[in-house]
Amino acid sequence: MNSNNNISGFTLAAGILGLIAGLVISALVSIPISNLPGWMGSILPFFIYALLGLIGLLLGISKGKNIRNFMQSSFNTNHLSSRSNFSSSILVDTSAIIDGRISDIVATGFIDRELLIPRFVLDELRHISDSPDAIRRNKGRRGLDVLSDLQNSNKIQMQILDVGVNYTNEVDSELIQLAKNMNACIFTTDYNLNRVAELQGIPVLNVNELANAVKSIVIPGEEINVNIVQEGKEIGQGVAYLDDGTMVVVEGGRRFINSSHDVTVTRVLQTAAGRIIFAQTRSA
Asked: Domain 89-213 maps to which CATH number in 3.40.50.720, 3.40.50.1010, 2.30.130.110, 3.30.70.920?
């Protein structure tokens, strides 16, 4: 039923146009034939009208189907192309550039899509690198070095978008609006930008979330060997760090500072800042 209903719209209209064209041609052909003497001049024109009208109708329906299928195919191709563009572009935030880990991620080959750097992000980075504050200035210059590394990388394509910022908006707001217009996702380490973008339906690649996701998994009762490097906040506690940076708070570990020791995991706490492991010494 759906197929017949589809034909009755566009295709039927094309058939009617074909019928009209056939009748017009029939009229032109029948003018000289109607002057013939006898039955040929009176009957043959009606036969020509019926024949050419039917041919026009059938040709219109046939060509209408082809045109309709072509239009549907073109629409689907354009639709898929626009969705393909969505998955092929990543807008990079200033925070992710300054953070620097994007270079390491690119080097591993985990990102195979083009990185887009809006000009207003580049301007913000240049402004930070010119800051009178030494820490901000060093961050900005490190960000420029990271961009240079990405531009010279053979594992990724990077493009500077000549897009300025509307000075009535913040850079984050401008980045979100640009991501909407381009159907792109945002690469960032900024928690607030991450949440605002997600609320507006924009996909986000957050380096911090990636780092937390790939940290070592330990479970209560598991024994691990750690190097206790400092005191904890509570009396008798020691603090160690795993290779991935995860903090391990060791009860009774203060006396083992500056040495490696086997500890037993008691619980694992996931916080907004990352994962914290609590453990106790085997001799505690």
From this structure: 3.40.50.1010
Spell out the domain ranges in the chain: 2-85, 89-213, 223-281
Which alpha helices (H) appear in the chain, and where do they start and end?
Answer: 2-6, 12-33, 39-87, 94-99, 101-108, 119-129, 134-152, 171-182, 191-199, 207-213
pTM: 0.53
The yes/no answer on whether domain 223-281 falls in CATH 2.40.50.140 is yes
List, for residues 187-222, the tens digit of each pLDDT value: 999 989 999 998 998 999 888 878 777 777 788 889
Sheet holding 158-161, edge to edge: 158-161, 114-118, 89-92, 185-188, 204-206
Residue 41 has a pLDDT of 65
119-137 per-position pLDDT tens digit: 889 889 999 999 999 999 9
